[in-house]
Automatic annotation (TrEMBL):
<protein>
    <submittedName>
        <fullName>AraC-type DNA-binding protein</fullName>
    </submittedName>
</protein>
<keyword id="KW-0805">Transcription regulation</keyword>
<dbReference type="InterPro" id="IPR009057">
    <property type="entry name" value="Homeodomain-like_sf"/>
</dbReference>
<feature type="transmembrane region" description="Helical">
    <location>
        <begin position="210"/>
        <end position="231"/>
    </location>
</feature>
<keyword id="KW-0804">Transcription</keyword>
<keyword id="KW-0238">DNA-binding</keyword>
<dbReference type="GO" id="GO:0043565">
    <property type="term" value="F:sequence-specific DNA binding"/>
</dbReference>
<dbReference type="InterPro" id="IPR018062">
    <property type="entry name" value="HTH_AraC-typ_CS"/>
</dbReference>
<feature type="transmembrane region" description="Helical">
    <location>
        <begin position="6"/>
        <end position="23"/>
    </location>
</feature>
<feature type="transmembrane region" description="Helical">
    <location>
        <begin position="35"/>
        <end position="57"/>
    </location>
</feature>
<keyword id="KW-0472">Membrane</keyword>
<feature type="domain" description="HTH araC/xylS-type">
    <location>
        <begin position="278"/>
        <end position="386"/>
    </location>
</feature>
<feature type="transmembrane region" description="Helical">
    <location>
        <begin position="183"/>
        <end position="204"/>
    </location>
</feature>
<keyword id="KW-0812">Transmembrane</keyword>
<feature type="transmembrane region" description="Helical">
    <location>
        <begin position="144"/>
        <end position="162"/>
    </location>
</feature>
<dbReference type="InterPro" id="IPR018060">
    <property type="entry name" value="HTH_AraC"/>
</dbReference>
<dbReference type="Pfam" id="PF12833">
    <property type="entry name" value="HTH_18"/>
</dbReference>
Length: 393
């Protein structure tokens, strides 16, 4: 079982190093310190399992159960991190989410005040028993439910964020939360692994401490995933330190969560009069058909609304009523139609597909391919090949 100890100890060291990197990263905003704290808590909690299974509880008995309450911070810190990513500020009364952690610590004060010998007996009776006690199993199920609630709420915010950026931006690749979603799904995997490990520990013959170290392997995967994504982001920042941000900050978006709820439930309130609707429709048609503003790489709802002299919420309503789609789909559909039109021109043969796509407003090959497949059901190469065949017939 020492291999479990070594793996978890190595993951903990990696986590502490990652915490240091995040702390050194600039600017130090809310995202950085919440992510750093989450990484530190994950890393420190790993040492709890290592402490029990390695036998160091006999050498340092007064560290008994110090790391165990940290599991109750996983969910709150993950939720706060996702909230900051999707709202650009901390949630109100965020510190109240730590109440279960505080209550748990207070409940174990009698244990913390015991002598070293008594703590060693506690560890050997609970953590090193030949199977996971029923009380411990129920406690772990409660923890799983606690974290699961936060994950579900976090996924909800991610989903709303993704809809929000689709309603306001034409290029969402650089401001998406795909890495955050992967992190949430990894947490779900960890919860499943934790539940299986403790259930098997209850029915089979291995200790609570071994179960903790098995769960530690999943926590280690989370830490390495965080390390990978953070390291990649640092390289991006170093390479583009002097460039302007590639996409507008979401703080300029005025859509509130209440409006999002109404939208999700289908209760869209129309504020445009019939006269405004027809007038604004003509302005939008001119901007799209004649001026081809969709070819601007980073056109946003706010920018397009300024160009046609209406409010962003009015433009959002206009697109919804006219086309029944998000701003993101509206812009990219017109980009694809423009690309298809250009591919019918024999002179387009001298240009690459990516070159044409970039000239029509796309910022990357991946976003171009995804959009083209969505609106045509074909890859760009397949479409161009068929167009060549048609032109030769």
């Amino acid at each position: 079982m020492q291999i479990l100890v070594l793996l978890n100890f190595a993951a903990a060291l990696q986590g502490f190093f990652l915490t240091y990197l995040i702390a050194q990263n600039k600017p130090r905003d809310n995202r950085s310190w919440v992510l750093g704290l989450l990484t530190f808590v994950l890393s420190l909690s790993l040492l709890g399992g290592v402490y029990g299974l390695s036998g160091y509880y006999k050498v340092f008995p007064h560290f008994t159960n110090v790391a165990d309450p940290l599991f109750l911070l996983y969910g709150p810190l993950l939720f706060v991190y996702i909230y900051v990513l999707t709202h650009n500020h901390l949630p109100k009364y965020y510190f109240l989410h730590a109440l279960p952690f505080v209550i748990y610590v207070l409940a174990f004060i009698p244990l913390y005040l015991k002598s070293g010998e008594e703590k060693i007996q506690f560890v050997e009776a609970i953590f090193l028993n030949d199977h996971v006690p029923l009380k411990a199993l129920l406690m772990q199920v409660g923890r799983v439910i606690h974290i699961l609630i936060y994950i579900v709420v976090s996924l909800f915010f991610v989903r709303m964020y993704q809809q929000k950026i689709k309603d306001n931006f034409s290029d969402i690749e650089k401001i998406s939360l795909e890495q955050a979603k992967r992190l949430l799904y990894l947490f779900l995997l960890m919860l499943l692994g934790a539940l299986v490990a403790f259930v098997l520990g209850y029915f089979l013959s291995y200790s609570f401490s071994i179960s903790n170290n098995i769960i530690g392997l999943f926590v280690g995967v989370l830490i390495y995933a965080l390390a990978y994504s953070t390291w990649n982001k640092q390289h991006v920042h170093l390479g583009k330190a002097n460039e302007k941000p590639s996409a507008p900050d979401l703080s300029e978006v005025k859509m509130t969560l209440a409006e999002e709820f109404d939208k999700q439930k289908g209760r869209r309130v129309f504020v445009l009069s019939e006269e405004q609707f027809h007038d604004f429709s003509k302005r939008l048609e001119q901007a799209v058909e004649q001026e081809k503003l969709f070819t601007e790489n980073e056109i946003s709802l706010a920018e397009l609304s300024k160009k046609i002299a209406i409010q962003p919420y009015q433009l959002s309503e206009l697109i919804s009523r006219l086309y029944g789609e998000s701003f993101f789909d509206f812009i990219n559909r017109h980009r694809i139609e423009e690309i298809k039109s250009r591919l019918k021109d024999p002179e387009s043969e001298t240009f690459s597909l990516l070159g044409i796509a970039m000239d029509c407003g796309f910022n990357s090959k991946s976003s171009f391919n995804t959009a083209f497949k969505k609106f045509t059901g074909q890859t760009p190469s397949e479409y161009r090949r068929k167009e060549r065949l048609r032109s030769t017939m």
